[in-house]
Amino acid sequence: MVQAKGLEGVIATTSSVSSIIDDVLTYRGYNVDDLTDYAQFEEVIYLLWFNKLPTSQQLADFKSELIENAYLPNEVLDIIKNLSKENAHPMSILMNGVSALAIYDEEANQMTESANYRKALRLQGKLVSIVAAYSRISEEKEPLRPKEDLSFAANFLYMMSGRIPDEISEKAFNKALILHADHELNASTFTARVCVATLSDMYSGVTAALGALKGPLHGGANERVMKMLVDIGDITQVEHCLHRAFENKEKIMGFGHRVYKTGDPRAKHLREMSKQLAKVTGEEKWYYMSLAIEKIVTKEKGLLPNVDFYSASVYHSLGIQPDLFTPIFAISRVSGWIAHILEQYENNRLIRPRAEYVGLKNQTYIPVHERDESKDVIA
Ligand SMILES: CC(=O)SCCNC(=O)CCNC(=O)[C@H](O)C(C)(C)COP(=O)(O)OP(=O)(O)OC[C@H]1O[C@@H](n2cnc3c(N)ncnc32)[C@H](O)[C@@H]1OP(=O)(O)O
Ligand SMILES: O=C([O-])CC(=O)C(=O)O
């Protein structure tokens, strides 16, 4: 049996959703650099789900469908309100919210192509409403409904803050959403595929994926990058704090990647956005601290920033609180999870690898009343 720790280098499936070849990321064959520079996030969702870019009419219809599907059942809003009082992390609230959505969806367990498409729209529309509702409730404000004339990016910023965003913020957030939409067989996408390969439903696949995304080695890193910046506090402290972290063999959040060897192509877009937004807000400290951190970590550890590193200062400049950084990753990545879930259903086989057993062998069972408590029976 071949064993690869962390499944490094293992090809677990074929896929035509996205690719990373020679450190170039494409969605359905389109370079992510072009999509980021020119597309709207809604076009990218459409591309991921239908394997083609929409016409103007298809895009207009698709945008309307997403907004129509964004409302939350009152029961789910009540769950968000109650859990917010418990000081739960918003990723946990999002997981609860998505599981609850399944309970109030009559089609949750229907597996036809048309039912799956309707569920895809509901999930894409409602995840954003759950995250925005949490944000409002945590500030003791009423949740807001999306506006029909706003883009997906503008609607989230509006539903969070109650203000229609300016053009620069909307554009930056749109780019961030595109950059996070899909990424081949990353841990959360693989989790979604493993889940639905049992022929479980789309809500279960997305809930499972959210659990994987939450971890700090994956999507949870962006929140920790902001914590690191705040803990360091000032550019004069960067060198000292990093050397202390290196000595303690701590991982520097937002650096390193399993697949990219010459750097994550998404990081340059986020670095540039971080710079531009810092100029607009006048709060340039986090951008310059991030640059200083990148310089030292790259020079001394040979590690390059990944998508999570500059997302932190970008989201901060957009007025987003740090505990929402990973949920925001999810409102974009759900588009990729859905594309992969649909692809898995199309050509399904149960995903069930093997483990190489390294535990004890030939143990003799001793009935509980005969075990001597003074002996270490676990050995
Ligand atoms: C959207 C995303 O999921 S992007 C990734 C987000 N996660 C992070 O930013 C967390 C920090 N980064 C990491 O933990 C890793 O680089 C990962 C999880 C992204 C990739 O992990 P792997 O491919 O398994 O690499 P692994 O963790 O084995 O690291 C290899 C070596 O580089 C070191 N290394 C890797 N990343 C870092 C880091 N960020 N800081 C310090 N050292 C690091 C490891 O300590 C290890 O060193 P060793 O061989 O001396 O033990
Ligand atoms: O691909 C990975 O391992 C992690 C990543 O960058 C992502 O999910 O965007």
Supply the number of structural domains: 2
Radius of gyration: 22 Å
- In CATH, what is the homologous superfamily of the largest domain? Citrate Synthase, domain 1
CATH class of the largest domain: Mainly Alpha
Number of strands: 3
Low-pLDDT windows of residues: none
Mean pLDDT: 96
What sequence of helices (H) and strands (E) makes up the elements?
A: EEEHHHHHHHHHHHHHHHH
Which CATH-level-2 architecture of the largest domain?
Orthogonal Bundle
Largest sheet: 3 strands, antiparallel
Keywords: Acyltransferase, Transferase, Tricarboxylic acid cycle
InterPro entries: 2-MeCitrate/Citrate_synth_II (IPR011278), Citrate_synth-like_lrg_a-sub (IPR016142), Citrate_synth-like_sm_a-sub (IPR016143), Citrate_synthase (IPR002020), Citrate_synthase_AS (IPR019810), Citrate_synthase_bac-typ (IPR024176), Citrate_synthase_sf (IPR036969)
GO biological process, one term: tricarboxylic acid cycle
Catalytic activity: oxaloacetate + acetyl-CoA + H2O = citrate + CoA + H(+)
